[in-house]
Amino acid sequence: MDAREPAHGADVGSGIAASLLTNVSDLAEDMAQYIAERIPEVGGDAELRGLTLGSCSSNLEAVLSMFRHGIDVTAAEAPVTALEHARVMASRGHSVDVMLRFYRLGHEYFTDKLSGWLTDQIDDPAVALRTFVDLERYGFRYIDRISSLVAAEYVAELDRRQNQARAERDDVVRALLAGERIDNARAERVLSHRLTGRQIGFACWTDDRGVDLEGLARQVGRSLGSAHSLVVTDGPLGVWGWVSLTGSPRTPLTGMATEWAGGGEKVHIAVGSPHPGAAGFRTSHLEALRTRRVIELSGRAAPSITEFSDIALVDAISRDLDAARAFVAAQLGDLARDAAKERDERTTLLAVLDAQGSLTAAARTLGVHKNTVLQRMRRAEDRRGRAATIKVAELHAALLVCDVLGASVLREP
């Protein structure tokens, strides 16, 4: 403790502290009641009320004893009951601010009581004021130190519990993705996620460490029709997510990509198809990962949202990339070159096939004249070496693979 005013002032303060120590039990009960009346979180929690009383008693005894014997406040350590109180507050989900209110209110109570005690015990106003200042300053420094210690313990306990919950959650996710038999009720409790509805898995990733991927994943979940998404990290630049739906998912999701592109966030999202139950949790996730593989093979730079249903055929054909290249080359011939003219001709031919052979519809889709479509189509057939009416299904598939994967399956010009 800092050096205090004349010896008689110090003696008075020590005497007051000694006198209060004889009544610590009653003081602690009164302080605990004072706090409980002002913090509703204490109300019906018997364990928390008991720890609050224990903490009040331990801290009062410590601060008064230390003041009485002139022990520097930096030697103070948080009582065991105070640390346990902090751990229980963390386990109950109360905020650190609520926990620290216990100490602020305890200090308020002590200050109020101290002024009354000094008025009753000391006749000289100057001595009473000096003693009050000494005790109040010491009490404030003590509370400042102890509140920092218990706050650190609160954070440590919160981290322990969050790490434990995260590890347990990750273990359940791993078991589901491995196709292991698990207790669905326990899995739902650990994950806070229903496994009874149709499951949609999705993956989000980026190259920008500044993107709030978890926030974006929850936005994807809301767009899919669920207010709650299960989100787990996939390294520093990726997350996996799932939603459980009872109705149909909201569509389309493409508007989200446009919105994010406007915000400059370079995010890609791959979405699996809906599948029922715990098995669907795994199946939809694997579809999302396969969709991500296709997106990465395509080399897309712009933000994108891609659903597995839109690239399922490309995924199947490109599982063996060398085989996919050979298939494209066999079906397209010289049209399978990675050059601007060939790209325009492939795009035109794909538009015609998508329009079931209608040149007019293809022209409208491409925004060009019908004659331009016809000319490009003829050049495409020349490069292919045969008419577009030969092996139409194979041609359509090859053009679709080229449209999605681009240079990954094309020859150098």
From TrEMBL:
It holds the Pfam family GGDEF_2. Residues 347-399 form the PucR C-terminal helix-turn-helix domain. Gene3D superfamilies: PucR C-terminal helix-turn-helix domain. Residues 186-294 form the CdaR GGDEF-like domain. Transmembrane segments: none annotated. Residues 26-169 form the RsbT co-antagonist protein RsbRD N-terminal domain. Belongs to the CdaR family. This is PucR family transcriptional regulator. It comes from Mycolicibacterium setense.
